[in-house]
Design brief:
By secondary structure, this protein is α/β, with parallel strands linked by helices. It is 54% helix and 7% strand.
């Protein structure tokens, strides 16, 4: 038997197996339980969050041989055929490849006919926003008043492209992106069932790069299994994703805070020697600023994001919130500049030096050393200011008027 990828093997077949999307599940379950069924449903959300999966489970619930139920049996011929993608009364349409109005009319010509096996004929139109304007117009009337035996299930990643006339005819459900915790827990459960050893930090990193998509998380897990062989380790996942160790960002950030130029030079040399992705290091610095700011202002919420609580707490106690915001803006602007540079490493070095330049002035603790420091500054800056003040030519003094000659006496 050929290998089946994790995303297909572990596709949920019941509402109870879905990860997240509680608001959508409760609405559909209540509608099925009370037999209050709409004729058109629209599922929106980013890729890999369960739009098509929910539509298939809903179609199975409508046509299960045990009756309309929120919990289909999963063993009857209808449920098995739906799971295997060969149920004749579930018509799945890829709108991205059938955009023409002729394709839409051809599909709608068969709407009037009764279902062959099931209770309802279900039309599942995926990526419905790809249909042409004429296709939407052809769909309007049927979507508004379909036959009693027909249900429309629409799925899209871009609902803004749908006409308002289509949106007003559907019940709309927006599926949310999944959290890192939800994805990592599901990945851990699947890998345990697959008897595949793994390191928890590696799973959390995969969940982070899934960016809210369970399908992306499972695809990355498949890739990690192929990369590592028998054990999913953090080092393997970091190499696969091109990430850098968190110590890079923490060491550089600490050197900037302490005005430790020698340490900063060492980190620059290490960057030049090992050639990591400097943009990933920059992302780590941005994440540190975010975590520090959250710790300073919203400590309860910051616990959800801290990857190194000890380091973040230490930085938060030493830096003012205003300075953190300055660093954050410098880093954000630097990330934009980094993309237009021929040498990203030199741009990253200049970015760190810019943060160093905006550090608050560090005064000595003793009074004498402070006076010396101020005196040295005065000696350096005043002449420069003086020279700047005297760059313009001074006006020449007006000549004194010559004394008038005394009049000669008259004879």
């Amino acid at each position: 038997m050929s290998y089946q990828v994790l995303a297909r093997k572990w596709r949920p077949s019941k509402f109870s197996e879905l990860v997240g999307q509680e608001h959508v599940k409760s609405a559909l379950i209540n509608g099925l339980s009370n037999n209050r069924l709409h004729h058109a449903y629209l599922f929106t959300g980013t890729r890999g969050v369960g739009k098509t999966t929910i539509a298939r489970i809903f179609a199975k619930s409508l046509n299960c041989e045990t009756g309309v139920s929120a919990e289909p049996c999963g063993v009857c011929s209808t449920c098995v055929d739906v799971d295997e993608g060969r149920f004749v009364d579930l018509i799945e349409i890829d709108a991205a490849s059938r955009t023409k109005v002729g394709d839409t009319r051809e599909i709608l010509d068969n709407v009037q006919y009764a279902p062959t096996r099931g209770r309802y004929k279900v039309y599942l139109i995926d990526e419905v926003h790809m249909l042409s304007r004429h296709s939407f117009n052809a769909l309007l009337k049927t979507l508004e008043e379909p036959p009693e035996h027909v249900k429309f299930l629409l799925a899209t990643t871009d609902p803004q492209k749908l006409p308002v006339t289509i949106l007003s005819r559907c019940l709309q459900f927006n599926l949310q992106a999944l959290s890192i915790e939800q994805i990592s827990q599901q990945l851990a459960m699947i890998l345990s069932a697959e008897q595949m050893p793994f390191e928890q930090p590696a799973i959390e990193l995969l969940a982070k790069y899934a960016k809210g998509s369970m399908r992306d998380g499972l695809s990355l897990t498949d890739q990690a299994i192929a990369q590592s062989g028998q054990n999913i380790q953090l080092t393997v996942v970091q190499k696969m994703m091109g990430t850098v160790d968190v110590s890079w960002g923490q060491n550089i950030f600490a050197a900037i805070l302490q005005n430790d130029t020698n340490k900063l030079v060492e980190e620059f040399q290490r960057l030049a020697k090992q050639h990591p992705d400097v943009e990933k290091v920059l992302d780590d610095l941005i994440a540190i600023c975010h975590q520090v700011a959250m710790t300073q202002v919203l400590p309860a919420a910051a616990k959800l994001h801290d990857s190194n609580p000890e380091f973040i707490s230490a930085v938060a106690s030493q830096v003012s919130p205003q300075q953190v915001q300055v660093y954050y803006q410098i880093l954000l602007q630097g990330k934009k500049d980094l993309k237009v540079l021929a040498d990203p490493l030199s741009g990253f070095e200049m970015l760190c030096l810019r943060m160093l330049a905006f550090n608050p002035v560090q005064f000595e603790s003793s009074e004498n050393s402070t006076e010396t420091h101020l005196k040295k500054n005065t000696e350096i800056t005043l002449p420069e200011i003086k020279s700047a003040e005297h760059t313009a030519a001074e006006p020449e003094p007006e000549p004194e008027p010559e004394p008038e000659p005394e009049p000669e006496p008259e004879p």
